[in-house]
Write a structure and sequence with these properties.
alpha+beta; Alpha-Beta Plaits; Non-ribosomal Peptide Synthetase Peptidyl Carrier Protein, Chain A; 6-stranded mixed beta sheet; 5-stranded mixed beta sheet; disordered N terminus
């Protein structure tokens, strides 16, 4: 065909979605993975992938396997809906074709080709159905020929979960001579593993059956290998208990999502062997060694506890090499990105919520106790071991206290810093007797004020609100989505060699050392000047798009437009000689990375960076500036997060914690971090007496802006400015 290529966004062509796998179980897993990935990207920033690119990648991304499904879809939502039905084992799904190819039976001839750009919707649907039916029966199409006149791209999608054929050297002990061992070998297809694998599988089935029985208060003998665990009584409450016992016994983190994907004991054990084989072997070896050697030296660390007055008492926790905690207390190494938030007076998430009705302290305390079993970093302390930090779970209850205020006490006013004085809560997780989260309930004459303080080292903005909404749900007696503590997935990202890093950064764009600034010792990064800006996001976006050309119109979003307005407001307040300004827009990589689930609890955000001269920031039109911000955000991919982790870990290894403790993302004299929490799709914070009616931040950090949703399409922005004439940072 001649003429200019058309983009899939400008036509209403249904796309053929195909999936294949070795067997039906793997096909269901692939469908579930794709649903989770697309669902996380639907409301995200950057925007979700194009349907065109999803279809193209699925068709050409890898060689087709035996078990196949195919269907036509006009939108990503349609893809999610059909695959959700398939994963749920629905018996009849309109428009979905399911088949099995065979090498012995050749497929019928290909159906006639059709011009996708010239055909009517009815013709496309009919032809697509014929094509789908042909492909699932074993057809081998020329996929590229379907995209004449289009410009599809291959994109990153969840990878295939290979079911490895386990091959091993089997050790068989003779009945007549216990010391004789015969070795049998098998031709290797994908590698060799030790004979202990089958023994480990049997051992796991027995042990996990016992853990489930304890959690469900059920005889383990009544839990069948292939019986659905929900039929045995597994629910959100018993899931928390079971997963905690699983982590304690094997030192692994397993998300609640895994129990949905692997609903039987047999499938769960198979999943653990595929994804946690190293940890399972290590635990087995550790237990065997411990049964022989009892004199291993242990490291003693102090973990805080709560006193009656809301303070702390110290007690000792013994950890073997900071991995296996006494009495099953969990420990977790900080991921490299977490180190940005560990230093003195570093960013902490501190919010006061005002409720017009009084909150019941005992009810909140009981719910917090239960939720902290799942979100255990909020009831942990920070440990330093050599040149590395760890989160160490505490054995006592979370740091929560009730304070009754005098009759004259009133809720604070955001624009009056002095009004926060009665509600100040000292919070420094670096102190020996402090935890990584602290909670206080101030009882006023007219309502309650809940103080929530969480170290940014264990939670980004999304995780903070995720935990808070889960606490509220538990207080209302409702279930909540269990968190995924998979920092261990992030840590390996930083294990690249210097040569690999050099290869990754061959274009020079990956040199991240210059991105950071060092905080001068003893100086305070908090801000005394804070302004609140208010906008109608939807109206601004409508007006901006109406006034823009087509290219700009397709780029700008409400988020990028609000960020542009805030950046210009900040630039106007900076010194005229500020020079090149830096804008940092944190991106939630839960929406981009196939390694992170939507329920990941921790720091999964890394910034998209944009650098412009101050004069350009001030003189650019808001719409063009917003388009530049959108381009910067959309240029980020999974490698962006990897680069941040590699760079930070290399700095820690080369210069130690004294350097990482002083790290900051931007210099507020010319840099701004804009975080949009208005985009978080989480339930309202309601502990059972109604949502809060006031939200206040007692501590604000220079060079930060937080976008918060108000009623309808209204948003407010808290913008914190640096004090002029005060040197806060020095550049590296």
């Amino acid at each position: 065909m001649g003429g200019e290529p058309k983009d899939a966004l400008s036509i209403q062509t249904p796309m053929l979605i195909v999936l294949s796998a070795k067997d039906n179980d793997r096909l269901v897993e692939r469908a579930s993975d794709l649903v989770a990935y697309l669902s996380a990207r639907m409301n995200g920033e950057p925007p979700p992938p194009r349907l065109l690119d999803v279809a193209y990648t699925l068709q050409l991304g890898r060689d087709p396997m035996k078990e196949r499904l195919a269907f036509l879809a006009n939108s990503l939502q349609a893809v999610i809906e059909k695959l959700t039905l398939f994963a749920a084992e629905a018996t009849e799904i309109v428009g979905l074709f399911r088949g099995c190819s065979s090498e012995d039976i050749p497929a019928d001839p290909a159906p006639p080709a059709i011009n996708t750009l010239a055909a009517t919707p009815a013709e496309l649907t009919d032809a697509g159905a014929q094509f789908a039916a042909w492909w699932v029966a074993g057809g081998e199409p020329d996929w590229e020929s379907l995209y004449e006149g289009l410009e599809p791209r291959r994109i990153s999608l969840p990878t295939y979960r290979f079911s490895r054929e386990r091959c091993w050297f089997r050790e068989t002990v003779s009945d007549t001579n216990p010391n004789s061992v015969s070795i049998h070998t098998k031709e290797l297809s994908q590698g060799s593993e030790l004979a202990g694998e089958n023994i480990l599988q049997t051992q796991l089935l027995t042990e996990i059956r016992q853990l489930l029985g304890a959690a469900l208060k059920l005889s383990p003998a009544r839990i069948g290998d292939r019986q659905r665990l929900v039929e045995c009584g597994l629910d959100s409450v018993t899931t928390v208990s079971f997963l905690k016992q699983l982590e304690r016994k094997y030192d692994i983190q397993v998300s609640a999502d895994s129990l949905i994907k692997y609903p039987t004991l047999e499938s769960l054990v198979g999943f653990l062997l595929r994804h946690h084989i190293g940890a399972l072997r290590s635990t087995r070896d550790h237990r065997e060694a411990a049964s022989v050697e009892h004199g291993e030296a242990a490291t003693t660390s102090t973990c805080p506890g709560n006193s009656a007055d809301g303070g702390s008492n110290g007690h000792s926790v013994v950890a073997a090499g900071l991995v296996q905690g006494q009495k099953g207390l969990r420990k977790l190494a900080l991921a490299p990105l977490d180190y940005l938030f560990v230093g003195p007076r570093r960013f902490a998430i501190q919010v006061l919520y005002y409720f017009e009705s009084h909150l019941d302290f005992a009810q909140l305390q009981s719910a917090l106790r239960n939720v902290a079993e799942a979100f255990y970093p909020v009831n942990s302390s920070l440990l330093r071991h050599q040149e590395q930090y760890f989160i160490s779970e505490c054995s006592d209850e979370p740091d929560f206290a009730e304070i009754h205020c005098g009759a004259q006490a009133m809720p604070p006013e955001q624009d009056r810093p002095e009004s926060f004085a009665p509600f100040q809560v000292g919070f420094d997780p670096r102190l020996p007797k402090e935890k990584l989260a602290k909670f206080r309930l101030f009882q006023l004459l007219g309502g309650s004020l809940l103080s929530v303080n969480v170290s940014h080292a264990i939670a980004d903005g999304y995780s903070f609100y995720y935990f808070l909404s889960s606490w509220a749900a538990a207080c209302r007696g409702e279930s909540f989505q269990l968190p995924d503590h998979s920092q261990r997935r992030l840590n390996p990202l930083a294990q690249h060699s210097l040569q690999q890093r050099a290869n990754d950064y061959s274009d020079g764009s990956g040199e991240l050392d210059s991105f950071f600034s060092l905080l001068e010792a003893g100086l305070d990064p908090t801000a005394s000047r804070v302004e609140t800006l208010r906008f109608d996001g939807a109206s601004l976006l409508t007006e901006a798009r109406e006034a823009s050309d087509e290219i700009t119109r397709n780029k700008i979003t409400e988020n990028s437009l609000l960020t542009a307005l805030v950046w210009q407001a900040y630039a106007r307040a900076l010194a005229a000689d500020a020079g090149k300004l830096v804008l940092a827009c944190p991106i939630d990589f839960r929406r981009l990375s196939s390694e992170l689930s939507p329920s990941f609890f921790g720091n999964a955000s890394a910034p998209a960076l944009l650098r412009l001269e101050r004069e350009q920031v001030l003189t650019e039109s808001v719409t063009h500036l917003a388009a530049l911000i959108s381009d910067a955000i959309r240029s980020c991919d999974e490698l962006t997060l990897t680069r941040y982790h590699v760079s930070l870990d290399e700095l820690r290894r080369a210069r130690g914690l004294d350097a990482t403790d002083r790290l900051a993302l931007v210099d507020p004299r010319n840099g701004l971090i804009v975080t949009n929490v208005a985009r978080f799709q989480l339930p309202p914070v309601d502990f059972g007496t109604g949502p809060f009616i006031g939200e206040f931040t007692p501590i604000n950090y220079a060079g930060t802006a937080v976008i918060v949703r108000e009623e309808g399409s209204k948003v407010k922005v808290r913008l914190s400015f640096p004090d002029h004439g005060k040197t806060i940072f020095e550049s590296t």
